[in-house]
Amino acid sequence: LHDEKLVYLEARAPELGWSGTWLAAATLLGVLAALTLTLPPAPRMRAPDVNLVAAVRALLDRPAWIGFLLFVLLYKIGDRAMAPMTKLFLKDQGFSLAEIGDLLTPLVILATLAGAVLGGLLTRRLGVVRALLVLGLAQALSNLGYAGAAYAGGRGGAWAAALIEPFCGGLGSAPFVALFMLGCGGGYAGTQYAFRTALMGLVGGAIG
């Protein structure tokens, strides 16, 4: 959702100017930071010392770790490759930055969250492996919506594609996160999870 917030701020930049835009972003961040002060205190526990080398070695000692790692890196490769092109496509279809920021971006956030909630329910019912296959297929095929919208022309198809794709992305994210969590263990679950997400973000950013 970070990219959607940036799109919204970019849409407001012509009206506010860049100084006003960054001031608005800083104000929003300040409000969110202040809200954390209202949260109830959590018990503090000393985290055990973690040896990063040992955590990675435990990860590599798991069976079929190469295949698992490749799956993790490639599962969302379509979404990663398409993400930088989405805004350009919408602008090419006649959408203004204001429309993308004020109208489409909030709907994209809601569609992503709705897809993630439904994906979680389906993952619980289908199981992680079957959900990865079914929901992952829906996630991959949803990118074809942009091709269909480009072929058909008109703003209606572009609107549909821009909302269906994040909804299906949310569907696919639910079993993917579950797989991520199930694939971590050996006393280093948190470190392994962070290592994998960092690697996935690095590779995904390079693909994008």
Short description:
The protein has nine helices and no strands. The chain is mainly alpha-helical and 208 residues long.
Word description of this protein:
The protein has nine helices and no strands. The chain is mostly helical and 208 residues long. The longest helix has 35 residues, at 2-36. The radius of gyration is 20 Å and the shape is globular. The protein starts with a helix and ends with a helix.
Shape: globular
- N/C terminus separation: 16 Å
Enumerate the spans where pLDDT stays under 50 for 5 or more consecutive residues: none
Helix content: over 70%
Rounded average pLDDT: 82
Report the biggest beta sheet as strand number plus sense, adding barrel if it closes.
Answer: none
Percentage of β-strand residues: under 5%
Name the helix and strand elements from N-terminus to C-terminus, one letter apiece: HHHHHHHHH
What is the rounded Rg?
20 Å
- Number of E strands: 0
Count helical runs.
Answer: 9
Structural class: mainly alpha
Give the arrangement of secondary structure elements:
Blueprint: H1 2-36, H2 52-60, H3 65-74, H4 77-92, H5 97-126, H6 128-141, H7 144-152, H8 155-182, H9 189-207
Helix pairs in contact: 1-5, 2-9, 5-6, 5-8, 6-8, 7-8
